[in-house]
Amino acid sequence: MKNYFYLIILLLAACQPKPKDERQLVSVSILPQKYFVDQIAGNLLQVNVLVPPGSSPHNYEILPSQMKDLAKSKAWLQIGLLTFEAALKDKLADLNKDLSIVNCSEGIIPIAGIEHEEEGHAEQADHGAFDPHTWLAPAEAKIIAQNTLKALKTAFPDHAKDFETNYTRFISRIDSLSAQITQKLAPLKNRNILIFHPALAYYARQFGMQQIALELNGKDPSPRHMKEIVDLAHSQNIRVIFIQKEFDASFALQLSREINGEVVIIDPLDYNWEKQMLDITDKIAAQK
């Protein structure tokens, strides 16, 4: 009888509605930015992430429910170079005129999108004029964190002291991470990174690497480009092709067979930014 009574209590408790989260809301474009906000704000804020796990931020179309949360936000922290961000600005003007839109890549020296020739015509990469993957290098991540801090202090001034304290700790960890990456990459003689989607340009710039992209201008590689990559891989003894988990691996697998190599999956859009940066580095450093 006593056990039955406890079971009834547990069932009643489970049926109770969850308490409403009363924390103020801030929106970010991608999941790694939520990690940045969480490191600076702790649990003081709700964070609405526009691009969910498994989706590409380059061609994402926001859902109506996300527009609702975005309209309720005090600020939208953008990467600043993603195509979908610019497309949303006009829509938001009618939904929330007071929404603060912050370019968190402001102050970063941008890398131009990849240019290439196809069938005799020069083409400029998508993502606007510049590579948007600024969060994938610690040097740029420090600037993103600084812009995030400034935006949060402006939007939520009551928490400014807590933000400052957490930010200082976070920057110290980024510096430590940068030193670890430098140390892990130091023994590498082959400084090439062969990757399907060109996401590691800022990483390559900071750590003296060379990114070689299979995809160009957001398009699958042509037979001509595939041959160029195969020839380059043979001449440079490249045996690893990196690919993000949200992309189709068929071309990467085809290339791996032609160069007798392997395909290695990375996740630049993972929430745990610090862990993912080390994971990417360990996989690059493991190349022979």
List the SSEs and their pairings.
Blueprint: H1 2-15, E1 25-28, H2 31-41, E2 46-49, H3 64-72, E3 75-78, H4 83-95, E4 100-103, E5 115-118, E6 121-124, H5 138-155, H6 160-185, E7 192-195, H7 201-207, E8 210-213, H8 223-236, E9 240-244, H9 250-258, E10 262-266, H10 273-285
Parallel strand pairs: 1-2, 1-3, 3-4, 7-8, 9-10
Antiparallel strand pairs: 5-6
Helix pairs in contact: 2-5, 5-6, 6-10
What does this structure look like?
The chain is an alpha/beta fold. It folds into 2 domains: about 25-105 and about 125-180, Nitrogenase molybdenum iron protein domain (Rossmann fold, 3-Layer(aba) Sandwich), CATH 3.40.50; about 190-285, Nitrogenase molybdenum iron protein domain (Rossmann fold, 3-Layer(aba) Sandwich). It has helices at about 1-15, 30-40, 65-70, 85-95, 140-155, 160-185, 200-205, 225-235, 250-260, 275-285, and strands spanning about 25-30, 45-50, 75-80, 100-105, 115-120, 120-125, 190-195, 210-215, 240-245, 260-265. α9 (about 250-260) links the parallel β9 (about 240-245) and β10. The relative contact order is 0.12. The model is unreliable at about 10-15 and about 115-125 (pLDDT under 50).
Summarize the entry for a quick read.
The protein has 288 residues and is of the alpha/beta class. The chain has helices spanning 2-15, 31-41, 64-72, 83-95, 138-155, 160-185, 201-207, 223-236, 250-258, 273-285, and strands at residues 25-28, 46-49, 75-78, 100-103, 115-118, 121-124, 192-195, 210-213, 240-244, 262-266.
